Automatic annotation (TrEMBL):
This is WD repeat-containing protein 17. Gene3D superfamilies: YVTN repeat-like/Quinoprotein amine dehydrogenase. PANTHER family: WD REPEAT-CONTAINING PROTEIN 17. It comes from Owenia fusiformis. Keywords: Repeat, WD repeat. PROSITE patterns: WD_REPEATS_1, WD_REPEATS_2, WD_REPEATS_REGION.
Length: 1277
C-alpha cells in the first residue's frame, strides 16, 4: 500500500481552446480539461453533484466530448493525439479506441446506427466508426471535400441521417437523406462578397422541429434558420456591439426558449423565438462564457414530475405564453440545469428554476501548472503558476480561490513568496521577464527585464534577506538584484540556466542548474563572476537544484537524464545517485523535518519518495495524469505536500504514513529522544526522528508545561503538526469546548468552522449585526458587496435565528414591503398562521426558498429543517435546529421561551427539538463522511456533544491516531470503549512496521488489555528469545510455559483458554484442532449464534502465517479460511459493512468448492443467507421474485444468529479519509467486485491484486485472512 495518501484535490478548469467541451446526460454532467474528462454525478441523498471520476487516456489536448443519447453510461472523446475513445462511465474505463490520420475537432453519435461514433477533421470527410462491431472507419458519401474547415457538426435527434455543419468562413452545410446536399450556404449577410471569416461558434437543432436550426457566429450573433427553405426566420439582437455569443442551448422544458452565453462578460441570456431581444439577462460571473449545455432537471425523490413538460406537436416557433412573474418581479424561469464553463476555467451547474448555483468552482487553471508555493506566514495559502498566464492563490482548507493575478503574463514558469509577512509574489515568465505582484494592491508593482526577450525559467526570493531576488533564464544568466531593481551580480553561464536556489544556511550562497549538465555554486561577497564550485556528472541538462534545509552543504539536482544527484559541497563530491524515473526530473523538494527524505516529480507522471542514505525509492505515486512539475511542503505541517502537473490539477498529499512510529511514540509517552533529535542522529539511526524548526519549537513550548496538561497539549499540538489542515484544528477546539474551555481561549478562526451548538446562534447573530452596520456607512467602496446585499444577508441571518421583527424592519429598509407584511403577523395571528402554512407548503412544492421565512415565523421548525436538508443546505438546517432548541423559534400563539439572542441558560429544550438538532447534525456529519472527510464529520457530532459518534466517525475513517488522541483527552468517560477499539486497530499498524514493544506500550493503557496483548504476541514473527521478551513485557508467560498451560487446560475442557495459550506457545498449530472442533460443534447445534464461535475464531486468526501454510496444516487451513469468511460475512451484516457482504459470501462459496472443508456449511445455506440479507434492500426485491417472502422469514433467523455484537462503533461502511477522490492514471480494479477502485488501493500479498482501502479495512476487521485464499493475513491499517 502506498505510504503517501492523497487528502485533497483541486480539479483542472474547463479548457477554453475547443468548443464541444461540456455535455450532460441523465444525472451526470461532464467537462473536458486539457488532458482529462471530469464526470460529476448527482448524489440523490444530498441533492448535489459530486466529482465521480476523472477519465484520462489522451496524451494531448482533448478536442471534443459527446454523450451517447441512447446510453447515458457511454461517452466519446477526441484528442489532438489523433485518438477517438469510447468510455464506460460507471466502470471508469475506455471501452475502445481508434487512431486517425489527423486531429478530430468535433464528435457526435449517429442515431441511425447502434454504437456508431462520428467525427470530423479539418475539411472532412465525416468519419463513422461502429465500435460495437469491431469494424473500421466508414465515410459519409457526401459530407466531404468542403471549401472551409469545419467548426462543429450536429446530427438531427429525430430525423435520421440529417445533419448540419458549421464552418470557419461562417457558412453552413446541410445534408438530408433524399434531398440535394447544400454546402456553404447562409453565410452572415455582412460577409457576402468578402473573404472575411466569422466562424460558426455553435449549432443546436430545435428539439421539437425537423427543420429549424439555431446558429451562432462569433461576431454576427444568433440566427434561427429553416433548413428546408434555407431562410432565416429570426435574427436575434444582442444588447450591444461588444456582446458576443460563443455558446447556445435550447431549454428542453420550455418550447421556443433558448439560452446564450456572452463570451465577453458572464451574462447568460434567455430568449424566446418570438422576440428578437432577450427576455432575461442573468449575470453569473465577470468572466465571459466559453461553453453552455442545458438539460432537463431530473425529478427529485418524492417530487412530482416536471409540470412544465412540453406538449406534443408544439414547435419552437409557436408563440408561447411568457413565463409568469415571481414575487420578486422577475420572470419565473423554467426548470432546467445549465452546465456553464467560463474562459477563466470556471465550471458551474446553474439551476434555472431556482436561480442559483447547484455547483460552482469559480476558477481553475486551464493549462499546465508549473509551480506551487506555500505562503511563509500564512501556510494555509498556496500559490500556483501556470502556462495559462495567471498566478492563483488557494485556501487549501477548502480548496477555494482567494486571489488571481491581474492580466496575462504569458507562460509563468516559477513563483516565490516574499519572506515573512510581505504579501507579494515574484514570478518568472516566458516573454515578459520577471515581476512582483503586490496582492494587497492588486497589481504588478515591479518588472525586471534584464533577460531581454528570453524566457526566465526560475525566480527565487532570498529567505534570509527580503531585499534580494534571483532570476535565471534562457540567455544563460543568473541575475542577483535588489527588490528596487539594482543589480548586485550577473553570473554568466555557457548555456541556458533553468534553476536556482538560495542556501537556507548562508544568505550569500546560491546554486544554479544549467543546460550544460552542471551545477554551480556562487558566493556573492567574492564579487567574482566565477563559481566557487562546479559539480559535473549528469548526462543531460540540469533543471532544478535544491539545498537541504537540515544538513548544511548538502544539495540535490534533477536532470533530463532521469537521475537525481546528491552533492556534498564540503567534499566536492556526488555522494549518491538516485535512479528510478523513466523521464526528465522536474520537481525537487527536501523534507523540512526528516533530513534524508527527498521528493521528486517527473515527466513520467510520477512522484517518488527517496531515502538518500541508500538511494532507495520508498514510494511511488501515480495519481497525476501528466508531467509533475511543482512540489511544496506546508511550513507548519511538514508532512503535508502539494504537487502540480501538466494535467492542470493541484493535489495535496499526506506523508504521515512515512513517520507513523513518531506519532505512536507520542501517544505512548516515549521520551523526547525517540521523537526529536539532530540531523546527524536521524541520518545514522534506524527509526525516524524529527529534526526541523517546527518540531523543535513545539518541544520548547511544551517543556514549559506540567502534567496533566502537558500530555493533552502534546497530543493536540502534534496532532495538528501531522494532519491536513482541513478540520483538525476545528476538532480540537470543539474538544476544548466540551472539556469546559472558556470562550475567550477560542481562536479567531473558530467561528469560520463547525461551531458547538451553544455558540452557533451567538456567532451568527453577531455576524448579522455586523452586516447591519452597513446602514450607517455612506459608501461600500470599490469591490465591496452592495449595501442591499449586506442588509439582505443580515435579514436572512436574523430570520434563521428567529428574530422575526428585525427581519421585517430590514425588509422595509430594502423596500420589500410585501415580504415584511406577509411575515409580520407571525407573532400571534392564528389565521395568518394557517394561511402562511398553506403558502409555505405551496412554495416548498416548487422548491422555492421563500418558504423558509414563513416556516420559521409560524414555528414550523421541523418543516423548515426538513426542507433545508432536502435542498442540501445542511449547515443552515443545523442553525435553524439550534435556534429552535434555544427557544428563538416558536409558533405565534406560543409565548417566547426567552429573548431571541440569549444563547446561555434558559429552559430545557423539549425532546422533539433536541431530536431535530441531533438528526440535523447526524445528516451533516454523514455528508462530510461520505465525501471522505471523517474529521469534519466528527466535528459535526462534537458540536452537539455526541462524543461517541465523533469517535466512531474517526475510527470508520481510519483516522486512528487522531481517534486515540481525542479519546484520551476527552473528559467524557463514554468514549473509553471506542478509544480501546481505536488503539487496537492502531496496534495493527505497529505490527506492519515491526514495532512490537511500542504496541505493548499502547495496549497497556487500554481496558481488557490482556486479550489484545495475546493477539499481538501470537502474531509476532521473531526468534523464540525475542518473543519471550515480548511476552515478558506484556505480562504473559514464556512460550514453553504457555504450551504446558494449554495442555493442562485441554484436559479441563476449556477450549477458548486452551486455544489462547496454544497460539502463544512454541506449537501454535495445535490450537487449530482444538479451536476448529469447538467451532464446528457449536455450528452443528440447531440454534447457534455468532457469539458462540467468534471469540475462538478470532484467536485462530492470529496464528502465524508460516505455521498455517505448512503442508500438515492444509486440512485445518481450508476449514479455518472457510469458517472465517462465512462468520465474517455474518459479522459484516451486523456492522453494516454492506459493500463486502456479497464478496465474503462468494469467497466462502469459492473456498467450499476449492478446499472442500469438512465443516457444517453448504452452498445451499449460503444461498439462503444471502437471499435473506438481500431481501432487506429495496433494489433487490424484484430480483428475488416469489422467494421474497421466504427470504424475509429466513432473515429473522439470520438476525437471531448474528445477535447483538458488543462492538461500540456505530453501524455503517468505513470510508477512509481521502478515498472519495478519483485518480487520473493510477487505475486498479478490485478483486472483490471487479470495479475500478476509487481513491487509494490496497495491494494483496501477490503484489498485483488490489482492493479499495476502505473495503480492505472492513474485510480485515471481520476476517483476518486475505481474499486470495492463501492463508496470508491482511493488514491494511
Amino acid at each position: 500500500m502506498s505510504k503517501v495518501r492523497q487528502v485533497a484535490l483541486l480539479p483542472a478548469g474547463c479548457q477554453p481552446w475547443n468548443t464541444d467541451v461540456c455535455d450532460a446526460s441523465g444525472e451526470r454532467f461532464a467537462y473536458s480539461a486539457t488532458l482529462a474528462i471530469y464526470i460529476y454525478q448527482l448524489d440523490r441523498k444530498f441533492n448535489e453533484f459530486k466529482l465521480h471520476s476523472v477519465m484520462s487516456e489522451h496524451k494531448k489536448t482533448i478536442t471534443a466530448i459527446s454523450w451517447n443519447p441512447r446510453n447515458p453510461d457511454i461517452l466519446a472523446s477526441t484528442g489532438a493525439d489523433n485518438q477517438v475513445i469510447v468510455w464506460n462511465i460507471p466502470q471508469q474505463r475506455a471501452l475502445d479506441k481508434i487512431t486517425t490520420k489527423t486531429t478530430p475537432n468535433s464528435v457526435g453519435w449517429c442515431l441511425h446506427e447502434r454504437d456508431c461514433v462520428s467525427f470530423v477533421c479539418g475539411r472532412g470527410p465525416l468519419c463513422m466508426w461502429n465500435y460495437g462491431t469491431g469494424g473500421g472507419l466508414t465515410f459519409h458519401k457526401e459530407a466531404q471535400n468542403f471549401l472551409s474547415d469545419i467548426c462543429q457538426f450536429r446530427w438531427h435527434h429525430k430525423k435520421l441521417g440529417k445533419l448540419a455543419f458549421g464552418h470557419t468562413d461562417g457558412s453552413l452545410s446541410l445534408f438530408n437523406p433524399g434531398q440535394k446536399s447544400q454546402k456553404h450556404v447562409l453565410r452572415p449577410e455582412t460577409l457576402e462578397g468578402t473573404d472575411e471569416e466569422d466562424p460558426v461558434s455553435d449549432l443546436d437543432w430545435d428539439p421539437l422541429s425537423s427543420e429549424y436550426l439555431l446558429v451562432s457566429n462569433t461576431h454576427f450573433g444568433v440566427r434561427l434558420i429553416d433548413t428546408d427553405s434555407l431562410s432565416i426566420i429570426m435574427c436575434f439582437q444582442l444588447p450591444s456591439a461588444a456582446a458576443q455569443v460563443h455558446s447556445i442551448a435550447w431549454i428542453p422544458s420550455a418550447p421556443g426558449m433558448f439560452l446564450t452565453g456572452d463570451s465577453h462578460v458572464g451574462v447568460m441570456r434567455m430568449w424566446n423565438v418570438s422576440k428578437a431581444s432577450p427576455i432575461e439577462n442573468i449575470k453569473l460571473k465577470k468572466m465571459g462564457f466559453h461553453a453552455l449545455h442545458v438539460f432537463s432537471t431530473a425529478p427529485q425523490p418524492g417530487n412530482n414530475n416536471n409540470k412544465m413538460a412540453t406538449s406534443q406537436g408544439v414547435s419552437s416557433t409557436s408563440y408561447t405564453i411568457a413565463p409568469t412573474m415571481s414575487q420578486t418581479n422577475r420572470f419565473a424561469l423554467p426548470p432546467a440545469h445549465a452546465v456553464c464553463t467560463f474562459l477563466d476555467g470556471g465550471v458551474g451547474l446553474y439551476d434555472l428554476g431556482k436561480r442559483k448555483w447547484n455547483f460552482l468552482r469559480s476558477e481553475g487553471h486551464v493549462e499546465t501548472i508549473f509551480d506551487c508555493k506555500f505562503k511563509p506566514d500564512n501556510p494555509d495559502l498556496l500559490a500556483t503558476a501556470s502556462f495559462d498566464g495567471t498566478v492563483k492563490v488557494w485556501d487549501i482548507t477548502d480548496m477555494t480561490a482567494v486571489e488571481t493575478s491581474p492580466g496575462n503574463e504569458g507562460v509563468i514558469y516559477s513563483i516565490t513568496w516574499a519572506p515573512g509577512d510581505i504579501n507579494c509574489i515574484a514570478g518568472s515568465t516566458s516573454r515578459q521577464g520577471a515581476f512582483i505582484w503586490d496582492i494587497d494592491k492588486g497589481k504588478i508593482v515591479k518588472r525586471f527585464t534584464e533577460h531581454g526577450k528570453h524566457s526566465v525559467y526560475s525566480v527565487a526570493w532570498c529567505p534570509k534577506d527580503s531585499r534580494r531576488i534571483a532570476t535565471c533564464g534562457a540567455d544563460g544568466h543568473c541575475i542577483i538584484r535588489q527588490v528596487d531593481g539594482k543589480i548586485l551580480q550577473k553570473y554568466k553561464h555557457p548555456a541556458a540556466v533553468f534553476g536556482c536556489d538560495w542556501s537556507p544556511h548562508n544568505k550569500d550562497m546560491i546554486a544554479t542548474g544549467c543546460e550544460d549538465k552542471t551545477v554551480r555554486v556562487y558566493y556573492l561577497p567574492t564579487n567574482s563572476e566565477q563559481p566557487l564550485k562546479i559539480f559535473a556528472g549528469h548526462s543531460a541538462k540540469v533543471f532544478h537544484v535544491r539545498w537541504s534545509p537540515l544538513r548544511e552543504g548538502i544539495l540535490c539536482s534533477g536532470s533530463d537524464d532521469g537521475g537525481i544527484r546528491i552533492w556534498d559541497y564540503t567534499q566536492d563530491a556526488c555522494i549518491n545517485f538516485l535512479e528510478g524515473h523513466k523521464a526528465p526530473v522536474r520537481g525537487l523538494l527536501w523534507s523540512s523535518e526528516i533530513p534524508y527524505l527527498l521528493i521528486s516529480g517527473s515527466w513520467d507522471y510520477t512522484i517518488r519518495i527517496w531515502d538518500i542514505r541508500d538511494g532507495a525509492c520508498i514510494d511511488t505515486v501515480l495519481d497525476h495524469g501528466a508531467d509533475v512539475y511543482g512540489l511544496a511542503c506546508h511550513p507548519s505541517r511538514p508532512f503535508i505536500l502539494a504537487s502540480c502537473s501538466r494535467d492542470s490539477t493541484l493535489r495535496i498529499w499526506s506523508l504521515t504514513p512515512l513517520v507513523e512510529p513518531l506519532q505512536m511514540n507520542i501517544l505512548a509517552k516515549r521520551p523526547w529522544s525517540e521523537i526529536i533529535g539532530t540531523a546527524e542522529n536521524a541520518t545514522s539511526g534506524v527509526s525516524p526522528l524529527l529534526t526541523g524548526k517546527v518540531s523543535k519549537d513545539l518541544r520548547a513550548q511544551l517543556e514549559k508545561l506540567q502534567e496533566p496538561e502537558l500530555y493533552c497539549k502534546t497530543l493536540k499540538l502534534f496532532s495538528n503538526f501531522f494532519t491536513h489542515p482541513g478540520g483538525s484544528q476545528n476538532l480540537w477546539e470543539l474538544v476544548g469546548v466540551i472539556n469546559g474551555k472558556a470562550d475567550c481561549y477560542l481562536s479567531s478562526n473558530y467561528s469560520k468552522g463547525i461551531m458547538h451548538s451553544k455558540h452557533l446562534t451567538k456567532y451568527k447573530a453577531s455576524a448579522a449585526q455586523e452586516l447591519e452596520m452597513v446602514k450607517m456607512s455612506r459608501s461600500s467602496g470599490i469591490g465591496a458587496p452592495k449595501k442591499e446585499d449586506q442588509l439582505r444577508e443580515a435579514a436572512n441571518m436574523h430570520i434563521r435565528l428567529g428574530n422575526i421583527q428585525r427581519y421585517c424592519e430590514l425588509m422595509v429598509d430594502l423596500g420589500e414591503w410585501e415580504r415584511a407584511m406577509a411575515v409580520a403577523p407571525g407573532v400571534s395571528l392564528d389565521y395568518w398562521k394557517s394561511l402562511a402554512d398553506r403558502h409555505a407548503d405551496f412554495l416548498m412544492e416548487q422548491e422555492n426558498e421563500l418558504a423558509i421565512p414563513f416556516c420559521i415565523a409560524t414555528g414550523s421548525a421541523k418543516k423548515c429543517v426538513d426542507f433545508l436538508t432536502s435542498q442540501g443546505h445542511l449547515q443552515e438546517a443545523m442553525l435553524v435546529a439550534e435556534a429552535t432548541i434555544e427557544g428563538s423559534i416558536n409558533p405565534p400563539s406560543k409565548p417566547s421561551k426567552k429573548p431571541p439572542l440569549n444563547c446561555n441558560g434558559g429552559e430545557t429544550p423539549n425532546e422533539d427539538d433536541l431530536s431535530m438538532l441531533h438528526n440535523t447534525a447526524d445528516t451533516l456529519a454523514d455528508w462530510y463522511f461520505r465525501n471522505g472527510s471523517p474529521i469534519l464529520a466528527a466535528c459535526c457530532h462534537l458540536s452537539v456533544d455526541h462524543c461517541q459518534k465523533a469517535m466512531s466517525k474517526l475510527i470508520r475513517g481510519n483516522e486512528l491516531e487522531l481517534a486515540v488522541s481525542i479519546g484520551r483527552v476527552l473528559k467524557n468517560q463514554d468514549v473509553g470503549a471506542l478509544t480501546n477499539v481505536a488503539t487496537e486497530y492502531l496496534v495493527r499498524r505497529c505490527e506492519n512496521i515491526g514495532k512490537w514493544e511500542l504496541a505493548v506500550d499502547l495496549l497497556k493503557d487500554t481496558d481488557d488489555s490482556e486479550r489484545h496483548l495475546v493477539r499481538l504476541c501470537a502474531s509476532c514473527a521473531a526468534s523464540q528469545s525475542e518473543i519471550d521478551d515480548l511476552h515478558s513485557k506484556a505480562g504473559l508467560p514464556s512460550m514453553q510455559k504457555c504450551l504446558k498451560k494449554a495442555e493442562t487446560l485441554l484436559s479441563q475442557s476449556s477450549p477458548e483458554d486452551c486455544v489462547k495459550y496454544y497460539i502463544l506457545s512454541t506449537q501454535p498449530e495445535k490450537a487449530l484442532d482444538v479451536g476448529l472442533e469447538h467451532i464446528k460443534g457449536q455450528m452443528q447445534r440447531s440454534v447457534w449464534k455468532v457469539a458462540d464461535v467468534y471469540p475462538v475464531l478470532q484467536l485462530l486468526g492470529y496464528i502465524m502465517t508460516e505455521k498455517l501454510q505448512q503442508q500438515k496444516c492444509a486440512k485445518y487451513c481450508g476449514e479455518l479460511l472457510a469458517l472465517s469468511a462465512y462468520v465474517g460475512a455474518l459479522v459484516a451484516i451486523g456492522r453494516g459493512y454492506d459493500t463486502i457482504v456479497v464478496p465474503l459470501f462468494e469467497h466462502t462459496r469459492y473456498l467450499l468448492k476449492s478446499r472442500q472443508p469438512n465443516i457444517p456449511l453448504s452452498e445451499q445455506q449460503l444461498d439462503l443467507d444471502l437471499a435473506a440479507w438481500r431481501s432487506q434492500g429495496e433494489q433487490d426485491r424484484d430480483t428475488l421474485g416469489t422467494t421474497y417472502g421466504s427470504a424475509c422469514e429466513h432473515y429473522k433467523v439470520l438476525r437471531e444468529r448474528i445477535g447483538v455484537e458488543p462492538y461500540p462503533v456505530e453501524r455503517g461502511v468505513d470510508v477512509a479519509a481521502g478515498s472519495a477522490m478519483p485518480s487520473h492514471s493510477d487505475v486498479h480494479m478490485s478483486v472483490l467486485n471487479g470495479r475500478r477502485i476509487q481513491g487509494l488501493a490496497f495491494f494483496l500479498e501477490d503484489g498485483r491484486s488490489a482492493v479499495s482501502i476502505s473495503d480492505a479495512i472492513m474485510w480485515s476487521k471481520v476476517n483476518p485472512f486475505s481474499p486470495l485464499a492463501t492463508g496470508a493475513r491482511i493488514n491494511p491499517f
